[in-house]
Amino acid sequence: MINKRRSAAVLLGLLATTALIGTPPAAADDETAEPPAEPPKVELVLDVSGSMRARDIDGRSRISVAQQAFNEVVDALPDETQLGIRVLGATYRGKDKKQGCLDTQQIVPVGPVDRTQAKAAVATLRPTGFTPVGLALRSAAQDLGTGSTARRIVLITDGEDTCAPPDPCEVARELAAQGTRLVVDTLGLAPDEKVRRQLLCIAGATGGTYTAAQSADELTGRIKQLVDRARDTYTATPTVVGGSAGCDNAPLLAPGVYTDREAFAEHRWYRVPVRPGQELRASVSVALDRPVNPDYGVLLRATAPDGRELVRGVDAGSGRTDVVSAGLRWSAAEEASPAPAPSGVQPARTVCLVVSNSFAPRPGTQVTPGMPVELTVDVVAASPAPDGPDLGRGWALLLLLTLAGLVTGLVAGLLTRWWVATWREN
C-alpha cells in the first residue's frame, strides 16, 4: 500500500510539473530544420548486346554470370540503398543500326528495391543487339537525378561502344563538367585492350574505378564492393583538392572528406591546423583502378613544417580489395606548446600530411590520370593516452591474495607436521 501511494505521488508530481512547464518544444519548422540525409542511390547498367552470349567465363555465358551476380547483389543490398537497373542492347533484334543504337531501357526504377521484381526483370534478359554505351550512361544520369550527395553508376560491359556518337568518354566528361556529383565505375568482362582503354577513360573522367572481372566470383564481389562504397560515402560528397609537392604551398584543410589523384610513386602534401589540446585524425584510401605490380603500399605521415616526422600511419585494415588504406592519430600535446599569443590563446600549429605510394604500373598500363585518392581529416579534443599497463586498485587485491596464500601455506605446513608427528607416535 505504501509503495502504491508513493507511485501515485510521483505520478501526480510529474503531471503537475508538466502542467507548469508546458508541453515540450516541437521540432523546428521546415525552414530551420536540417533536411534528412538522402539515401544512397546506385544504378547498375548492364550490357545485353549480342557479344554477351560468349561462353568464356568459367565455361558459362557472360550474360548468365552477370545475372547470377545481380541476383546475389540484390539479395545482399542494404535496406537504405535505392537501386535502379538499366540495360542496353536488350530488345532490338534487327539490323538497322540507327534504331539499334537507341536500344536502352530502365527495367527497374531507382528507389527502394523490390527484390523479387528486380531479379525477375534481370532473369528474362537475352543477348540481342548493339552497344550504345554513351546513350545508356546519359540516360542513367537522368535516372539518378541530382541532389546534395554523390550518385553512382556501375557499368558492366564486354565490349566498346558500337554506336558513337555520343562517345561514352565524351559523355562521362560532359557529366563531370555539369557538376552532377556522379561517379561511374566500370567493369569489363572481356580481356580486350580497346574495351579496357574506353572503360578507363569513362571511370577516370568521373573519379570512378575500372576493374576487369574474369570470373563469377570476381564480378559478384566487385559489384557488392561498389554498392557498399555508395552506402558508406553517400552522406559526404568529397571536396576536390589538389595536393602539392611540398608543405609550404600545400592546401590548408579543415575537417572533412577530400578527393584527389596521385601519380605512381608520388608524394602529395596537405596542411591541417591543430591547436593545443586537440588531436588530428586522418585516413587515406587509394583506389586500385588499374593493374599494378605486386608488393605495393600506401603511407600516410604527419610532419612538422620543417620536415620532422611527427607520426607515421599504419595500415587501416579496411578489408576491401579495391583500395589500399592507411590512418594516423597525432595529438598537439605530444610536443611542447608554443608561447601563447598576447590574447592568451595558444595559436594553432600547422601539421603537414604527406600521402605517398609505392605503386608501379604493369607493362601497358595507362599512368594518367593519377589514381583516385580519398582523404578524411578530423580534429577533435585530445584523449589522454594511458602511461602504461596499470593495475590501479587491483594492487590491493593482489596484495590480499598474496597474504592469503602465505597464511594458507603456513597453516598447511603446520597441519602436515602435526599429522606426520601423530602418525609416527602411533
TrEMBL record:
Signal sequence residues: 1-28
Domain of life here? Bacteria
User: Pfam families per the record?
Assistant: VWA_2 (PF13519)
Please list every transmembrane segment annotated in the UniProt record, as residue ranges: 395-420
Domain named VWFA: residues: 41-230
Q: Which InterPro entries match?
A: CLCR, VWF_A, vWFA_dom_sf
- PROSITE patterns recorded: VWFA
Instruction: State the UniProt keywords alphabetically.
Output: Membrane, Signal, Transmembrane, Transmembrane helix
UniProt protein name: Ca-activated chloride channel family protein
What is the organism lineage in this UniProt record? Answer: Bacteria, Bacillati, Actinomycetota, Actinomycetes, Micromonosporales
